[in-house]
Amino acid sequence: MITIMDGPVGTELLARGVPTPLPAWSADALLRAPDVVREIHAAYAAAGATIHTTNTFRTRPATAGDRWAEMAQTAVLLARSAVPTDHRIAGSLAPIADCYRPDLSPADPRPAHRALAQVLAEAGVDLILCETFPHVGEAIIAVEEAVATGVETWAALTAGPDADLLTPMALADGAARALDAGASAILVNCVPASQTLRFAEALARLGAPFGAYANAGRPDEGVGWASGPPGPERYVAFARMWVEAGASLIGGCCGTSPDHIAALKKAFVDKNH
């Protein structure tokens, strides 16, 4: 059975005209445009997603300031209030620094990951999604702290926009370590859809539940970034290969949209009814 995850909040905020200034990025909308964040979650639910990731990718003291915990709690409430009660809320726990700069991973990320994991757990998320980690060591620490809360934990690693930050073997080795640390599912995310298959195949060899939620790649690939009607179908064509490799958790990352999620639901869920 295929479970449909949602798509990105950050790029969807931009598509709806909501600024995402640094350093808070998408988290800025929790204060300035909470209704739009709620609308985005509702749009993904209407499209067919049943796993909804909170807008907590950048709710950290260094990026969101003193109100970071309040903002994280708000993010959980917005997601919960926007989707059906039987859908699951995944608390996003992301790298402390840039998700494409593993060299910037701090020497001791544990306290920060522990703090956000605890806030997410106390806010009532159904699972914690440690996502978009290019640094395996930091990812394992995040998983350990998420697991310590008693909340189900998934781990998603990334090889980055050029698919060169981790090899498929290195990503699978990291995923194996995440499973050993207590993760119940492993994923690859934010790698271009056109380059995700080899990472999915590497995860398949571990024999655990796994999935993929890719980014749209370059705009000229025509997969996303508001590329028009062909984009979602092109994304589905790539996703079919991940499913054939054994993936059961499928969603979208940067540059995809509710239209992509609707196309995934049509391809992998509706056909079974």
CATH-assigned homologous superfamily:
Homocysteine-binding-like domain
Q: Using the CA coordinates, give the radius of gyration.
A: 17 Å
Spatial strand sequence of the major β-sheet = 1-8-7-6-5-4-3-2
- What's the story with the biggest beta sheet? 8 strands, parallel
The low-pLDDT segments are: none
Strand fraction band? 15-25%
**Structural shape:** globular
The number of E-state strands comes to 8
Number of domains: 1
The chain-level mean pLDDT equals 96
Q: Report the structural category.
A: alpha/beta
CATH topology call: TIM Barrel
- CATH C-level name: Alpha Beta
Tell me the span between the first and last alpha carbons.
12 Å
Number of helices: 11
Quickly list its features.
273 residues; alpha/beta; TIM Barrel; 8 strands; globular
Write the layout of secondary structure elements.
Elements: E1 3-4, H1 10-15, H2 29-32, H3 34-47, E2 51-53, H4 61-64, H5 68-82, E3 88-93, H6 110-123, E4 127-133, H7 136-148, E5 152-157, H8 168-180, E6 185-192, H9 197-204, E7 210-215, H10 230-244, E8 249-252, H11 258-268
Parallel strand pairs: 1-8, 2-3, 3-4, 4-5, 5-6, 6-7, 7-8
